[in-house]
Design brief:
There is one protein chain. The protein contains two helices and six strands, in the order ββαβββαβ. The chain has about 80 residues and is an alpha+beta fold. The chain has a six-stranded antiparallel beta sheet. Strand 3 and strand 4 form a beta hairpin. The protein starts with a strand and ends with a strand.
């Protein structure tokens, strides 16, 4: 099932399928492990709709929800 990274609840996993970024931001996210085919797990959500921490390729990264919505994932049914 296709959705975006912001749809994952704590503990849920998905596989990155596409990044809707360009230039330096895209390159930086890919350097951090947000590449198509990588498994990602949502860990913890900050209160009041703040950043969410994700585990990808053995690293924990916090992303704002606006950025997470620009990363497409595939989740298991």
């Amino acid at each position: 099932m296709e959705s975006d990274l912001s749809c994952l609840g704590s503990g849920q996993r998905g596989v990155i399928t596409r990044l809707h970024f360009s230039g330096g931001k895209r390159r930086r996210l890919m350097e951090l492990g947000f590449i198509p085919g990588a498994a990602v797990t949502a860990l913890q959500r900050a209160p009041f709709g703040g950043a969410v921490s994700y585990e990808v390729m053995g690293t924990v990264i916090a992303l704002r929800s606006a950025d997470a919505r620009r990363i497409e994932i595939e989740t298991a049914k």
